[in-house]
Amino acid sequence: MSDAPLNNENTESNSLTKAQLAELLYERLGLSKRESKDVVDAFFERISHTLIGGQDVKISGFGNFQIRTKASRPGRNPRTGEVIPIDARRVVTFHASNKLKEQVQPAS
Q1: pLDDT tens digits for 55-105?
Q2: Domain of 70, in residue numbers
Q3: Residues 62, 97: contact at Cβ < 8 Å?
Q4: Phi and psi of 27, rounded to 5°?
Q5: Between the CA of residue 61 and those of 11, 85, 90, what are the distances in Å?
Q6: In angstroms, rounded to a whole number, what is the distance separating the alpha carbons of residues 68 and 89?
Q7: CA distance 60 to 15
Q8: Does residue 2 sit within a domain?
Q9: N or C: where does the chain have the smaller number of CB atoms within 10 Å of the terminal CB?
Q10: 7 vs 64 pLDDT, higher one
């Protein structure tokens, strides 16, 4: 696969969508549009199920997705100043690999 940036001319924002990833598979690998969509959906579904199961996801050269449990804590209603308890919860964190960080960082 080419290291060339992805073309985002058809988007209103600077984000990459699942549809664009599927289109990229269709164009570069010759998969059918249906197969491309299925591959992208299966990829993200697998990541989601792995994280829901409490396991980390490590993608070499890209980064790590991890589940972190945040403890309950007191919060504050900004309008009234009233203290409100915030329940404990699980959150997903992402840590970019050094390789990705180097690619994102402009050359100095």
Answers
A1: 999 999 999 999 999 999 999 999 999 999 999 999 999 999 999 999 999
A2: 56-107
A3: yes
A4: -70, -45
A5: 26, 39, 25
A6: 8
A7: 22
A8: no
A9: C
A10: 64
Are 93 and 61 members of one domain?
Answer: yes
Considering the domain boundaries, does residue 11 fall inside one?
no
Q: Which residue has the higher pLDDT, 77 or 107?
A: 77
The two three-digit tokens of residue 63, written as one number: 């980064």
Q: Specify the DSSP class assigned to residue 88.
A: -
Name the token pair of 93: 């964190």
How many residues does the structure list for the chain? 108
Give bridge partners of residue 85 from the DSSP assignment: 74
Decide if 5 is inside a domain: no
Clarify whether residues 72 and 103 are in a common domain: yes
**Global pTM?**
0.73
Instruction: Identify residue 30 by its one-letter amino acid code.
Output: G
